[in-house]
Please model this.
Amino acid sequence: MSTTPAISLTGLTKKFKDVTAVDDLTVDIRAGRVTGLLGRNGAGKTTTLRMLLGLAGPTAGHATVLGRPYGELPRAAHRVGVAMDAIGPVTGSTVRGELLVWTACLGLDRRRTDEVIGLTGLTGAEDRPVSGCSTGMKQRLALATALLADPEVLVLDEPANGLDPDGIRWLRDTLRELAAEGRTVLVSSHQLAEVEQTVDDVVVVQRTLRYAGTLADLTDGGAHRLEERFFHLVDAPERALTHA
Amino acid sequence: MRNLVHGELRKAVTGRTWWILMLAGTFLCLLSTFGFASEGHKAVAAGGSAADVTNDIARAWMMMFLFASLSGAILVTREYGTGTVARSVLLAGSRGRLLAAKTAVATAAGAAFGLLAAGLGALACAFAGAPYGDSAAFTRETWLILAGVFACSVLAAPWGALLGWIVRNQVSAVALLITLTLVVDPGVQALAPEAAQYLLTIAMSSVYRDVKPDLLPVPWAFAAIAGWLTAAWFAARRLLTTRDIV
Ligand SMILES: Nc1ncnc2c1ncn2[C@@H]1O[C@H](COP(=O)(O)OP(=O)(O)O)[C@@H](O)[C@H]1O
Ligand SMILES: [Mg+2]
Model:
């Protein structure tokens, strides 16, 4: 396990006209582990990830992935794989067609599409129009797209949304395997139960940072439920919290 | 950059949009072809020139440029509708590269629309008079008009794409292009023809060699179009690089 963080956020702040979505967020994400970015709907998870990836400019602060801002990281698209709820597939594409578009953009071999189709359990659905896919299949396709370039870092926004119990188990196993191969996985979620069995580290946000550390520390090695700790953290007045 | 253009080409041919636009454009151009052919038949019977009729029919195919511009706009704005643009930006390396690749692919799409219009236009000139027993009278002017029709489609597509980057919404971009082309520019032309000749679509009518008065000479018309495209490029680039993506 490396000691240099894979992802580093420093004083990250985003103000939209009258709302502060993310406020002075400082946290390091350790490499080679699965980290859950947890918070309620509207807590600022997606906004944080958008700033990390340079899709949105921070009002203050900065973010780096693998030591550089995403926009300045050489071969960033090959080293960082992204799947976000808000990033939809190309209109009118099929499962394979969608993957082929991004395979072309990345300059990869066409055969890589078959590999990620296999990895994400989409075999047999290759020629299906994406518009006719279930939410679960769309989530698998988004993950397949993120995995195309075999990236070191994965940034996944709400990948468990819309998954059935089989899908959730599959996602958990897949993320664990990816981390076991040495990859860094940052996964946002508001579904605590699913996260509890998947992540090594936890970052809890509610506009501001509420907790950053290992899941084991947060739950006292499983003595407390994650849910119980979560509500304590997000409902507490900000000052009362110490940043772990 | 080659990879990026390749990926953008794949996106451009994904879905049915471009077929629908080509069919719609062809349908409209055919409608006015039939109009010009039947009007032309009467005119020739009254002693008019057959060459003028052929040229009018060739000019009828200029309308394809509107559909070329819509295809450019949709190429960009549909990505905003689905959020796909975020992935495009992430994989492009920089927003400037994405803008360049997309503009190049839109221009290629415009060339496809242009070839379709010029090709079908030539066929229309040759055969539209047949039901009336009129034969075509191709002149050098006819070929220049068809070349102009091609050029207008090629140039209109990047124009649509750049407006798409500025407006970022499919319905608004399509409405804006249609309004500019069918309402605003002809309106200004009726009220202030001197000023209107510099407008993009009126400058294009110089390029497809319309016979209206108060049109710029062709080289100046190309310069005016280049001016509009350059302005749109800088506006699109500035907005794309400074605004948050979706
Ligand atoms: N583009 C935007 N303009 C204005 N407000 C926004 C925008 N994006 C997000 N917000 C607001 O910022 C807050 C955080 O949103 P978000 O990051 O999407 O939360 P989460 O992903 O944790 O559910 C919400 O209150 C949301 O309404
Ligand atoms: Mg979100």
